[in-house]
Structure formats: structure tokens, C-alpha cells
Amino acid sequence: MRVTTKIAIVVRDDLAAWQRLNVTAFLAGAVAAGHPDLIGEPYENASGDRYLPMFRQPVLVYAGTGEDLARVHARALAREVSMAVYIEDMFKTGNDVDNRATVRAVAAEEMPLVGLGLYGPKNPLDKMLKGLALHP
Fold first, then answer.
1. Rounded CA gap, 82 and 98, in Å?
2. pLDDT tens digits, residue range 16-40?
3. Residue 87 and residue 103: Cα distance in Å, rounded?
4. Alpha-carbon distances, residue 32 vs 7, 13, 56, 89, 97 (angstroms)
5. Could you tell me which InterPro entries the record lists for this protein (predicted)?
6. Parallel, antiparallel, or unpaired for β 43-44 and 82-87?
């Protein structure tokens, strides 16, 4: 089956390892919540144990500088791509209400981005992500 869409997570390359993983998890969850049709069927092993369903397609994780994230963010906004954001101040909160308030308090061009979750047609996303390397 040929996949014509792409799920991409972009994390800032200067974050601590735990921060990169935390941001990736939150953003992947946001893409899943925003697009439940991306989720496949539950898994089951030969013993009959059931497991949660996962994405039906790969999730590619990229790393980039703050400037890279700002560029991808601006391109995604201009093209109205489905996107989730994670900003620095979200590391200081402990709940969704405060997370949303931190994002609401900052204008788009001033967001201290540490991560983006993107979903959309593969070709436009590839153009937006051009020059970024996959996370090592």
C-alpha cells in the first residue's frame, strides 16, 4: 500500500534527550487526536492478549534548529497544514489547561518553538521539511 500522506515530528536539536522524547510523544498524541482515521485496529498476540492500536503509517522524526522550526511553522501556517505546537514554556506546566494558556499568550511569529507535529499530503510536507535531517 502506497502512503500519500505524511506524519512528521520536528524537534529542536538542542533539547535534552528527555525533552526531545517528551515533545515527540505529546506531538504524536496530538496528531492522533486530531486525525483518528490515522489509527489502525487493536493488536492481539497469539495468546489472545490485546494491545492498543497505533498509527497506520510511519511517523518520521526530524531535528532542527530554532530557526528551522520557525521556518517550517511559518510555511505550515501559510499552507494551512494540520499542525500541533510545543513551546518552551510548556516544560514548566503540569497540565493541559496551563499548556494551552502558554500557547495562547504568544503571537505566532514569537513562539519559542521546541517541536512541531505535522500531518498532510506527502509532497507539500516534503517541501516544507526540505533541508532537515531525520533525528539521529
1. 22
2. 999 999 999 999 999 999 999 999 9
3. 7
4. 10, 23, 10, 23, 19
5. DUF2000, Pep_tRNA_hydro_II_dom_sf
6. unpaired
Q: How many CB atoms lie within 10 A of CB 8?
A: 27
C-alpha cell at 29: 498524541
Instruction: Give domain 5-41+51-134's CATH superfamily.
Output: Bit1 (3.40.1490.10)
Alpha carbons 12 and 74: distance in angstroms, whole number: 16
Give dist(CA 118, CA 116) in Å, integer: 6
Phi and psi angles of residue 83, each rounded to the nearest 5 degrees, phi first: -145, 145
Residue at 28: amino acid letter? A
Neighbour count for residue 72 (Cβ, 10 Å): 25
Predicted confidence (pLDDT) per residue in 55-97, tens digit: 999 999 999 999 999 999 999 999 989 999 999 999 999 899 9
Cell of residue 24, nine digits:
515527540
Length reported for the chain: 136
In this structure, what C-alpha cell is assigned to residue 32?
492522533
Contact 11, 68 (CB under 8 A): no
